[in-house]
Design a protein that fits this description.
The structure holds 2 protein chains of 2 kinds. Chain A is of the alpha+beta class. Chain A has 13 helices and 22 strands. In chain A, the strands form 5 sheets. A 7-stranded antiparallel sheet of chain A has the order 2-1-5-4-3-6-7, with helices on both faces. Chain A has a 5-stranded antiparallel sheet with strand order 14-15-20-17-18, with helices on one face. In chain A, strands 8-9-10-11 form a 4-stranded mixed sheet. Chain A starts with 7 loop residues before the first helix and ends with a helix. In chain A, 64% of the residues are buried. By secondary structure, chain B is an alpha+beta fold. Chain B is 31% helix and 27% strand. Chain B has 16 helices and 35 strands. In chain B, a hairpin with a 5-residue loop joins strand 2 and strand 3. In chain B, helix 4 crosses helix 5 and helix 12 packs across helix 13. Classes of the chains: A alpha+beta, B alpha+beta. Chains A and B meet through helix 1, helix 2, helix 5, helix 6 and helix 7 of A and helix 3, strand 22 and helix 12 of B.
Chain lengths: 579, 695
């Protein structure tokens, strides 16, 4: 159904219109949501699909949701072919295999009807604060071996039928989650968002007519595909391998090998995770949709970051992993902790292409932590689920330092200390940058971050972080960032905690989350001396660090550089490095 | 007696002078002198004294608005500003909210903080969210920290401690120490600047205030001296971003309230014209050279927001420095006369980058190499090449046509006119889309609004922007060229105060509520008195309320009766009604909590009457010529009448296609649109029905 002539102006207007509708859906969801994760953390994503179930536009929120969405929609609509749908129906699904890799992500899909025909779907995915299972927040890694332990799993259902909520299903969900009022509140916000999107799409149909609108959607997707192909074509053909590790999937377990080969063939890319570790018997696995989402996301950042995301952009890229491997596990493997994997998927794809995209890649970045505290609130007597989003910094870049305290790969906001303390029995003791944690380089990696949280009542902690054993890599002579750690302070004791452990905390315990620093780019001995001095003045680098990492001698009283001594030291250090 | 408003903008300093008795209005413009704006201001004041016999002794009030504070921030000209914060939290400011404002771009950066990390110091203290002191302030340590700051050169100190909105005692103690030890040092307390929760945003706001204090104090002092030298001994009032004016003394302490004052004054003017026309709901749409600014006016008042950002990167949300103080709610879009058009991926893209005034559009002939929106308007016949800035700048239509031909028409296979119309339509769609998202986000249907368009490019695009959103009426206000300066004349002293206090909405909260309102009213009274304002003092109370657990708050007005014992029930009912209006359902059983208490203190003065000198009936023929303008429905040019706005008279009517020209702009009236001039000289245009765009 190709329309005769594409008018560039109309195309611009329609394309921008779809992107704006997705943004408006996101604004609606956030405004009416109940949970901190959604309204402060912004852990959700909206999208628009056409009548042929193709992704037309998305709001720029979470890459994990965005990249999984086309596959999720396809799976859900296999359960509900179009003839089974009525105006006012809303479909719900949270299966980790069909969806985005863990149960807390609820997908809502609303068909958009025009003259009794489905002309598209408004879709959103939203991270629910809790969906039951082994531990608060439903992202437990240790002592979980099957997804049945992770919470309520909903295969596609009609959560609304012809505009009326399906109370039976709501009741089942309410009974199976720890914070039903937040989950149900956020679900209603999801329904609102899709409704607003649908209304807006119908207005576009009124303006342009459905025939013409569909023709323009074809064009949008084709041009996006073209642009993506041209960008990939600029990368020399070849197979580009890279390896990195995840620490492990619980106490006493082995490191998880992350092995990727990026195959560039003319205008197409295959991102293959063969050779990676097998699936684990824990809550740490990356469902294929999630693997796809972040691998694709990394490639888009490196090739064509500016055009709005849609199904056309994704056509020239294929992501594969052998069934039964860590990146494509077999049912009923569990996946609650998969947020930790997102960082590594992004990093290995970037690392693989670094040799041929020297000026577009960045070094390894800080591994964030998304720990969850859960228990009974001493004041209300109700269950609480307190998810934190503690993030670090960007890896160093070809022409500049990695941005400090800017999240890489995932993209949530942090949650204000003041908002957290109002709601949960916790007291934050510090939130600060860690000196000398940014990987040294001609351009410095962003710093690591430390956040200490004191408990004001008994509660459980489900830790979720990584990079305790394998530091974020540097590039082209740049050094790694500092490793992360989690430490429990109980009285005078300091107990190292495992990155994925579950713990019973006493009132008054302090948990210190140390987030890894990001990797450097280029030889640190070539770093501009003035930039080192500036880092020292700001406390990002210590005087000692300037000396050992950069070979720069700074007088602590005058805060000036001893240029003679610096020159000598840098020479010595270079020689020692065998340059 | 007379009142003078002076608005210092980037390029021009505008003056409006009104005789209080006759209402007669005088307008003047002078080039801005960026290094010291008072030079340009006083040059014009002296000229007006000499040539127009404006005697400052005959002036009762001077109102001043200025971009000076914004420039201090943009150019990072503030110096020696330091921050004191709670131990363990020195990195709250730089840590910010961590989210990237562009998902896929790996090369983005955050704005440079106004206070570098080395200038942030900590003191031992800790407050809980409910105001309980967990760790008392260590005064000795604090004294040491303050001495160190001053020894490092601190001239202005921001203080932002955790949860200080709930209990400001520690911040006040620090202020006392600073004032005792180092009188003359500027101090900004977060509990005074922005007593609301969320530590990053509050810190950012407080730091911005501290950053501006010294510069603004000098600026105001200098300006006052200049006026005093000319024997002016009355108050100078300063325009604030909340759409009110304040005594200059107040602004020396709270300069952060000045950062968006220009657009705020423009919105006040729009609201005023709306009232004179009995139109309550308007969208104030100002389209200049670089950006378009849109502000909703609801029930006669410009909407107020509690948070905005300055220095946004590419105008993206989340990229700038948050400022959490009440300000006129507005969005800024990268769409102006100077917005550059280009072809990318076979698509026509316009903006957000702008050729600005230098190198400017191609038709200026001063170096612009990229076709812009102004070039398109010239090719389409909407702009008169011989009457730009009243004829002071000659435009070159050939240059515009050549640029559009080479850069747009040829790559797209368009004719020059088609390409020019394409530019016009894309930039219009960009503005309409952003405006619609904005109105819908705030719960308004744009179809129920009237568009009021001004700024150099606004009157050329108003009609199409309005139609795209389903708006049926358009106003092109009179004196649009000095909108901000005129807006300042009609503005009352007005202050907004707020305090976060989170509690369940029930009987128990009522006494605390009364206490907070009493305190806020006291501060309000103090500020109004400082203005020496004559008129009726009024206080409007409201409260942000939400369902327990929900993040989004709804603002509910609080009436005197609500402070009685069963006030909580009445407030609950009002909240539920408002919630239902917004979201279509009510959660009857749910608990409700109060979050932030707000108070607006305003001095309502005698009603302002604007006399514009509009002719009652036809004098000289307003027709000044004819020329072809592009009519999109006909895909070609049609000859139409050109009117001189200065010669229009009351109740003058015309039907499109037509053009109304004035010194600062040109209004395009499309076929079927009907123009009528109101009693003040505003162009009131009833728009033709929205037509379908299908082909």
């Amino acid at each position: 159904m190709k329309i005769k002539k594409i008018d560039p102006v109309t195309l611009s207007v329609i394309w921008g219109g779809f992107v704006a509708i997705a943004a408006e859906m996101g604004a609606t969801l956030r405004r009416t949501a109940f949970s901190e994760v959604v309204r402060e953390g912004m852990d959700f994503s909206p999208g628009i699909f056409d009548g042929k179930e193709r992704l037309v536009a998305q709001g720029d929120y979470s890459p994990g949701h965005l990249g999984s969405m086309p596959f999720a929609v396809k799976s859900v609509l296999q359960y509900f072919p179009r003839e089974t749908l009525q105006p006012g129906d809303v479909l719900l699904m949270n299966d980790l295999y069909m969806g985005s890799g863990h149960l807390p992500d609820f997908f809502m899909i609303t068909p958009v009807f025009y003259k009794n025909q489905i002309i598209g779907y408004t879709v959103n995915c939203c991270h629910q604060q809790d969906v039951g299972g082994a531990g608060s927040g439903s992202t437990v890694v240790m002592n979980v071996s099957e997804c049945f332990q992770e919470g309520i799993r909903i295969l596609p259902v009609k959560i609304y039928k012809e505009g009326k909520p399906n109370e039976d299903i709501f009741r089942i969900i309410e009974a199976n989650v720890r914070v039903p009022e937040k989950v149900v509140g956020d679900m209603k916000a999801q329904v609102n968002a899709n409704y607003v999107g649908g209304t807006r799409i119908l207005e576009m149909v009124e303006t342009y007519g459905i025939y013409q609108l569909n023709g323009y959607i074809d064009e949008i997707l084709d041009r996006s595909e073209q642009a993506m192909r041209e960008a990939i074509r600029k990368i020399p053909d070849g197979d580009y391998p890279f390896q990195d590790y995840l620490d492990d999937c619980g106490e006493g377990t082995e490191p998880i090998l992350v092995n990727v080969t990026v195959r560039i063939r003319d205008s197409e890319a295959i991102i293959d995770f063969a050779g990676s570790s097998p699936q684990t018997e824990s809550g740490l696995n990356s469902m294929l949709n999630y693997t796809r989402a972040y691998a694709y996301f990394a490639l888009k950042c490196l090739t064509e970051p500016s055009i709005p995301q849609n199904g056309g952009c994704m056509r020239p890229v294929e992501v594969t992993a052998p069934l039964g491997s860590f990146f494509n596990p077999k049912f009923p493997a569990a996946g609650g902790g998969r947020a930790m994997v997102s960082h590594r998927i992004f990093e290995v794809v970037v690392g693989a292409l670094a040799p041929v995209l020297k000026e577009r890649v960045i070094a390894g970045h800080s591994q964030g932590a998304t720990p969850c505290f859960g228990g009974t609130h001493p004041q209300t007597g109700r269950h609480f689920v307190c998810v934190d989003l503690i993030k670090g910094s960007f890896g160093a870049r070809p022409f500049k330092d990695g941005a400090d305290a800017l999240v890489c790969s995932m993209n949530p906001r942090n949650i204000p200390v003041e908002a957290h303390e109002q709601k949960f029995p916790i007291l934050v003791e510090c939130l600060q940058f860690i000196p000398d944690s940014g990987g040294p380089g001609k351009f410095r990696g962003g710093v690591g971050v430390r956040k200490d949280i004191r408990t004001l009542s008994k509660m459980k902690l489900f830790n979720l972080t990584d990079r305790f054993r394998f530091a974020p890599y540097g590039l082209f002579g740049g050094k790694s960032g500092a490793k992360g750690a989690t430490v429990l302070r109980r009285g005078s004791e300091e107990i190292p905690l495992h990155s994925k452990g579950a713990y019973n905390l006493e009132q008054g315990d302090v948990v210190s989350f140390v987030i890894s620093g990001a990797g450097g780019y280029g030889n640190p001995m070539e770093r501009d001396v003035q930039m080192v001095l500036k880092d020292v003045a700001g406390g990002y680098v210590s005087i000692e660090g300037a000396k050992t990492d950069y070979g720069v001698i700074i007088d602590p009283t005058t805060m000036t550089v001893d240029h003679e001594a610096t020159k000598k030291l840098r020479q010595t250090l270079e020689e020692r490095n065998g340059r | 007696m007379k009142r003078i408003a002076v608005d210092v903008g980037g390029t021009f300093t505008d003056f409006t002078i009104q005789d209080e008795l006759s209402g007669e209005l005088l307008i003047a413009k002078h080039l801005t002198t960026p290094e010291d704006p008072s030079i340009g201001v006083m040059e014009e004041i002296d000229r007006l004294a000499k040539e127009r016999k404006i005697d400052l002794k005959e002036v009762s009030q001077v109102i001043h608005g200025t971009t000076f504070p914004s420039n201090l921030i943009i150019e990072r000209k503030g110096k020696n500003t330091f921050l004191i914060t709670t131990k363990g939290f020195k990195d709250v400011l730089e840590n910010a909210r961590i989210k990237r404002y562009d998902l896929y771009d790996l090369f983005i950066d955050k704005p440079v903080p106004l206070v570098p990390r080395r200038s942030i110091h900590e003191v031992t203290e800790r407050m809980a969210y409910d105001g309980t002191i967990l760790i008392p302030l260590n005064e000795n340590e604090a004294r040491g920290v303050i001495r160190e700051l001053v020894s490092l050169g601190a001239e202005s100190i921001a203080v932002c401690l955790l949860h200080s909105y709930a209990n400001p005692i520690h911040e006040r103690m620090l202020k006392k120490i600073i004032e005792d030890e180092f009188p003359g040092t500027y101090v900004s307390l977060s509990s005074e600047i922005s007593a609301n929760h969320k530590e990053y945003e509050r810190t950012s706001t407080t730091v911005a205030n501290a950053y501006l204090m010294k510069g603004v104090a000098h600026y105001i002092k200098n300006l006052k001296e200049q006026f005093e030298k000319r024997e002016f001994d009355k108050n100078i009032y300063i325009m604030q971003s909340n759409g009110g004016i304040a005594a200059s003394l107040t602004m020396e302490r709270f300069p952060v309230h000045m950062v968006e004052s220009g657009p705020a004054a423009g919105a006040q003017l729009s609201a005023y014209f709306g009232k004179t026309l009995n139109m309550d709901n308007l969208l104030s749409f100002e389209m200049g050279g670089t950006t378009a600014k849109i502000c909703p006016i609801v029930k006669g008042e410009p909407k107020i927001t509690d948070e905005f950002e300055i220095e946004k990167i590419k105008l993206r949300n989340g990229s700038g420095l948050p400022i959490n103080i009440p300000a006129i709610d507005m969005i800024e879009i990268g769409a102006g006369g100077g917005s550059i058009a280009r072809v990318n991926m076979g698509l026509l893209i316009v903006g957000p980058d702008s050729a600005g005034a230098m190198p400017g559009p191609m038709c200026y002939g001063i170096g612009g190499q990229e076709p812009t929106v102004t070039d398109a308007n010239l090719v389409l016949g909407y702009l008169n090449p011989d009457f730009f800035a009243g004829g002071e700048i000659k435009l070159d239509p050939e240059a515009s046509a050549a640029g559009i031909r080479d850069k747009i028409a040829r790559p797209l296979g368009y004719s020059i006119e088609q390409a020019a119309w394409g530019i016009y339509e894309v930039v219009t769609a960009n503005m309409a889309r952003a405006t619609r998202v904005m109105t819908i986000e705030r719960g308004y249907d744009p179809r129920n609004f009237v568009l009021i368009a001004f700024g150099g490019a606004g009157p050329m695009h108003g009609s199409r922007v309005a139609k795209t959103m389903g708006i049926k009426k358009l106003i092109i206000p009179i004196f649009a060229g000095v909108a901000s300066a005129l807006g300042m004349l009609i503005t009352d002293p007005k202050f907004h105060f707020s305090r976060t206090y989170i509690a369940k909405l029930d009987r128990n909260v009522m006494s605390k509520m009364k206490e907070i309102y009493q305190e806020l009213e006291g501060i309000g009274l103090e500020n109004l008195n400082r203005c020496g304002a004559v008129g009726t003092f009024k206080y409007f109370k409201s409260c942000d309320v939400r369902y327990f657990g929900q993040g989004h708050e709804i603002n509910v007005s609080v009436l005197e009766d609500d402070l009685s014992d069963n006030g909580a029930e009445m407030l609950k009912t009002r909240f539920n009604e408002e919630y239902k209006r917004n979201y279509g359902y009510v959660d009857e059983g749910a608990e409700i909590e109060v979050v932030t208490f707000k108070l607006t203190a305003v001095c309502l003065r005698l009603r302002f009457e604007l006399k514009t000198g509009l002719k009652e009936s036809k004098g000289t023929d307003p027709k000044k010529g004819e020329r072809g303008i592009y009519i999109p429905e006909e895909k070609g040019f049609r000859s139409c009448l050109i009117y001189d706005r200065e010669k229009l008279y009351k109740s003058f009517k015309a039907t499109g296609p037509a053009i109304v020209e004035e010194r600062t702009s040109s209004t395009v009236i499309f076929p079927g649109d009907v123009l009528e001039v109101d009693g003040l000289g505003n162009l009131v245009i009833t728009l033709n029905e929205r037509e379908k765009k299908g082909k």
